[in-house]
Amino acid sequence: MVDFNVRILQEQDIDAVTKMEVAAWHEYYSQYEGLYNTIKNSVTQELVSKGWYDFLKAEAGYGGKMVTGNDRIAYVAFYKDKPVGIGAVSAYKHGVDVWGPVDDYIRQKDGSLPKLAKYQNLYVRSDHRGQGIGHQLNIARADYMLDKGYTGLFLAPYAEATKTMEFHRKNGLKHIHDYMSLSTYKDGKSVKIACCVNLDLHAIRDHWQKQLASKKTNQE
Length: 220
Fold this sequence. Notes:
The chain is an alpha+beta fold and 220 residues long. The chain has one domain (5-219): Aminopeptidase.
C-alpha cells in the first residue's frame, strides 16, 4: 500500500489543494448531468480558494458555508509532496431552520442535543482512489472531534449523487430528510441537499479503522 502523509491544512497548501479539489469535484460530479450543469460554474479555483482561506481564518461563530465555530480542522493527504486528498470537519449547528428535522431526530429524552461533527469537502484525486486515503482522512477528523467531546456525525451531500448516498448508507449513516440549498446556482436554481446522521462517532470511526486495516492487508 502506498504510504501517504496526512497532516493539517496550512495556508501555504491552499493553492495546490484547491487545484486538486476543483479537478476532483468536476471529474466526480460530471456523472450526474443535471446536478453538474447546475453547479459547475460555481466550483472554480477562485471561489474554492476563498472558502479555504475563510475556513482557516474565520473567527468563532462565523456562519459561512464552510465554517461553524472554532471546533474545525482540515486534513490533507500528500503523496510525494503533492496533495491527493482533502477532508474538513466543523461543528453541526443546532437551530438551523433547514436542519430542524435533524434536531428532532437527535434530541434526547431529557431535551438535550448531542454534539455532531459536520464532515465536509472530502475529495480524493481520481488516480489515488481506492487506496485508503478517504478512510485516513475520516479517521483523523473523527479523532479530532472525539477529543473535543463530539459524539455523532452529520453529513449534507447532494441528494442526487446516488453513489455518494449509497456509500454513506453502507457506512451506517441514516438519511433523515432533504432540503433545497440556500445557495443558488445557474438560472437561480437550488439543488436538493440530503441530511445524513450517525449518532455514534466512536463506532463509525472504529468501522473506518477496520476497513482501512482490511484494505492494507488485501493490498500487501
